[in-house]
Amino acid sequence: MPTRTSNSHASRVQIQEPRTISPPSSPIAFKEQQDSRPHPGTHQTIAGKFFRNLFKGLFLSQLTLISLLVIVLTIRGLILATSHHFHPKKWYPPLLASVAVSGVASLAWQCIFIYNPSRAVKATFWLSPILTCSVGILLVLIGSAVDAGIGAVFVVFAITQSLYGCWITPRFEYTDKIISLSTAFPPARTREVVFLSIVVSVVYSGFLVTGIGGATSTRTNLDLLFICVVLISLAWTMQVLKNVQHVAISRARFVNFAHGEDKDAWNALHITVKHLIGSICIGSTLVPIIVFIRGSIRSVNLMSGNSDEVMYSGADCFSSIANKLITVGNRWGFVHVGTYDKGFIEASSDTWKKFRSTSGLEKVIDSDLTSSFCFFSGVSVGAVSSLTTGIWMLLIHKDYALEVTLYAFIIGYFVGRVGLAWVQACVLAYYVAYSEDPESMRFDSTIPQRIQRLQMLSAHRDNRDQLEVGRERDQEDSYNNYC
């Protein structure tokens, strides 16, 4: 993305002027080019190579098969449209328009973030609930009971987002600093990489929409299965597209943070697509599953508290499971995938070990809001997209309004996440580079101060809990003595 002319938080990130290095021809050349600097040795096992090639083959195969399926469904839908209650001229234009709107909204959000990242971060956390609630109200206005029920779900989701935004308000300042530091000087040609990714996501989504419309025209049980398959393919492909950016841009950004050198994002993207798709496909499969499981466990822990001994012991067990899962697959592993050409599971394990070896860093990463910012941004783009098509369908054909609005929301969400993947990639690279050399002069005091702050808060909570436990024991002793 374009370099901002000034940034108060990022003024101390780079101590020396970056040195431009020529693009390598392969990952091995990339490692050798970094003179004699030591880095983790990587030994590709036979099993690791097998799974990388397997997932790469599965991904390319599903792209081919889904493309054939979409073509067949589209042709069949257009042929049978005259004999069923399906009107292509009323169904396709609103949804295709919403896909285009999602691309425009994603690009617009880039401009807003570049102009003022601090305000963009804060605005996201109040704009997303408002837009989500608007989608819910729109669905309620459609009139049917099913539409009203799903609309109510959107309203509850909006309320949940609002409560979460209030809960995390104290963390805004640190998130603003870390995002500003990480994205202050993006790699060269980052803008081209982001623009290409958004265009590919929009074109691919529009292509899949034609197949969904073809399956909708007949509405058999088999067609419902086809629609589900197409949506699953969309989700996986968008995850891969997003994580390709994570690997490519974090690869270039890591070199800058760790060694003060400048790496071209476009060349990093070329190497990523050519050599690392297998690991990216594995990560794109594991990370969403692990994030969902870990998020559910953390929610259970928050609700359980320490009021009930059975629930507390169960929460403690769930926490140990979450701690093990995070070492199997996490988004920070993509940095080592791109930098050291590691397998994804090995990269995830190594990066998390580095975080745990640096006192307090793991808690800092857990409290970081970058992933929440990207999620809320995706929801905002999805809501804008669904409002566009929902209002259109509400005016011309209510029968299609619900399904088309939901499709638009899903597509808009993924396009929004692809558009902001570069921001998350920069933050990932910053944390990983810091964990490998916390004493480096290229890093300022932002993370150490955050570690100190969290340690003080933790000590304060521990003292408060001890006082409460002591007070409860005194009350119990007084009651026993009275009896």
Automatic annotation (TrEMBL):
GO CC annotations on file: plasma membrane
Family: Belongs to the CTL (choline transporter-like) family.
Primary subcellular site in the record, as a coarse category: membrane
InterPro entries for the chain: Choline_transptr-like
Protein name: Choline transporter-like protein
Pfam families linked: Choline_transpo
Stretch list, region Disordered: 1-42
Biased composition (Polar residues): 1-23
One Gene Ontology molecular-function label: transmembrane transporter activity
Transmembrane regions listed in the UniProt entry: 58-79, 91-113, 125-146, 152-172, 193-212, 373-395, 407-433
Stored PANTHER family: CHOLINE TRANSPORTER-LIKE (SLC FAMILY 44), CHOLINE TRANSPORTER-LIKE PROTEIN
Superkingdom of the source species: Eukaryota
Subcellular location: Cell membrane; Membrane
UniProt keyword terms in alphabetical order: Membrane, Transmembrane, Transmembrane helix
Membrane-topology descriptor: Multi-pass membrane protein
Functional description taken from the UniProt entry: Choline transporter.
